[in-house]
Amino acid sequence: MNEALWALGRGTGVVALALLSLSVVLGIVHRSGRPLPGLPRFSVTLVHRDVSLLGAVFTLIHVIALFFDPQAQLNLVDFILPFLGTANPFWLGLGTVASDVLVALILTGLLRRSVGFRVFRFVHWFAYAMWPIALLHSFGDGTDSAAAWFNVVAVLCVAAVASAVIWRLTTGFVEFKKLRTGELP
Amino acid sequence: MSALRNELRRELRRESALLHIDWTACDGRGLCTELLPELLQRDEWGYPLSLGYGSNVPVPRALMDAAQDAVALCPRQALRMLGR
């Protein structure tokens, strides 16, 4: 049973990392205002939301499985306050920070219309902080971080998010950007 | 002709709800024009455009669900339904 919880905790952590990476990429695509092939703009938004929620569910299973696993030595306080853990307090703490930010992102995302656009956008910017923190947590705390298969997954995640961020920083990122900022004909 | 058009417009207003576009918030992301192609076109800069109407666009009953989706999904929260 303990082995099962340990395996579940590790597996769900990796899946959560992949899903949250995909979510960051979809969030950036959404921000560009562009559709994807076969996926209209409103679908990009909905898939971004659903992938994020699925990533949060996997994060939740990850946290709960490791809480009941004796090897991880998680305490209840580690769910909320970072860097107070028994084993690997720093690397575990990064996971706590990332999951705290994830909760804030999910809540303000789902209550977007209630909290208002400014609050939503302010909190949502922290997704760009959450993702590298979660990545560092998976490398520093992950049992499989030396395994080749994990490194393949991690490199794919980094490549996807990095190329999306670089695209976001280019001038033609937003649809109609060139038309809107250009001279009138 | 214009009297008839105004009469038609008043009739449409009575029959339907109004979709309000907040132009200061709108960024022309194009979700609403995808969800309500019968109602909204995109202008050449990507902003929604309803021919014949400005900020308040009458929504026929058949398009109410799509309009509510557009309100919920607008990334800039620039859309709302006006109460009757």
Mind explaining what this structure looks like?
Chain A contains eight helices and no strands. Chain A is an all-alpha fold. Chain A has one domain (2-181). The termini of chain A are far apart. By secondary structure, chain B is α+β, with helices and mostly antiparallel strands. Chain B is globular, with a radius of gyration of 13 Å. In chain B, a hairpin with a 5-residue loop joins strand 2 and strand 3 (48-49). Chain B has three helices and five strands, in the order αβαβββαβ. Chain B starts with a helix and ends with a strand. The chains are: A mainly alpha (185), B alpha+beta (84).
Give the helix tally of chain A. Answer: 8
Look up the CATH topology of chain B.
Alpha-Beta Plaits
Beta-strand proportion of chain B: 15-25%
Q: Kindly state the mean pLDDT of chain B as a whole number?
A: 89
What oligomerization state is this entry in? heterodimer
Structural class of chain B: alpha+beta
Shape of chain A: elongated
CATH architecture descriptor name of chain B: 2-Layer Sandwich
Low-pLDDT residue spans of chain B: none
Largest pleated sheet of chain B: 3 strands, antiparallel
Low-confidence segments of chain A, given as residue ranges, are none
Structural class of chain A: mainly alpha
- What are the secondary-structure elements of chain B, in order, as H or E? HEHEEEHE
The counted number of beta strands of chain A is 0
Describe the largest sheet of chain A.
none
